[in-house]
Design a protein that fits this description.
Carbamate kinase; 2 domains; eight-stranded mixed sheet; four-stranded mixed sheet; 14 strands
Length: 288
Amino acid sequence: MSAHLETMEERIRRAEVLVEALPYIKRFSGHTLVIKLGGAAMGEDVDAFLQDVVLLRFVGMRPVLVHGGGPEITAWQKRLGIEPAFVNGLRVTDAPTMEVVKMVLTGKIGPNLVSRIHRLGGQAVGMSGEDGPTLLVRPRGSEDGRDLGYVGEVDQVNPEPIEAVLEQGRIPVIASVGLGVDGEAYNVNADTVAAELTVALGASKLIMLTDVEGVRGADGALVSSVDRAAAQHLLESGAVSGGMIPKLRAALRALEAADAAHIIDGRVSHSLLLELLTERGVGTMVTR
């Protein structure tokens, strides 16, 4: 008897969860969401995250998935005898390194994500900025003027190939590689790609999954919500550092089109659904 009651309570709770999510599903149905996958979300539990993405597509949202692959690129460089080098957090990308970048992003990580989405019942198309081309880029130098090789800065976005995939009911899975005016492939920061796509697609949200809880203020406490001016102050004051700097910059750029940008902890199971479809959410929300 108690087992039956327990089971019924669990079923009622599941129904309550769906009811709680309903207003958010209604609000975002038909909206484009750009989701940048990185950090712990690309680990062993990636299927839980991709399950969330597939669910969002089935309830009427239009997710666009952007991915990088820094740790795996570094691992392959070392395996091939190429010593990784960085300048101010940017990977120095000579011709051999660019080959590794393309191999890892468009030959390994992208196809793996696509096949996993298919196994979970969704439909996806793997792309990179070279396809279309979607991302036209210019060479990017370091802040101190050093040559970074084939590192690109987004110059122009052509959203039509992505829109065509979305109109088919499929999920675009986009690797952060762009096409230069010289016809060469360039390595582009995935946070930057996600932000530029958010603006070009007129997306309602940019969501960046990482391997930290979110943005922390000068006192070290997690900032659950911050507006544009306060986020700019965090950057200028040096309160944020390392990999959080490009994420916060990307969030501010995305607000040119999006209602909000979110930096959330990919280590939390189903963090994407918790952020979008519940009242409290997880991580940091950056608003206008």
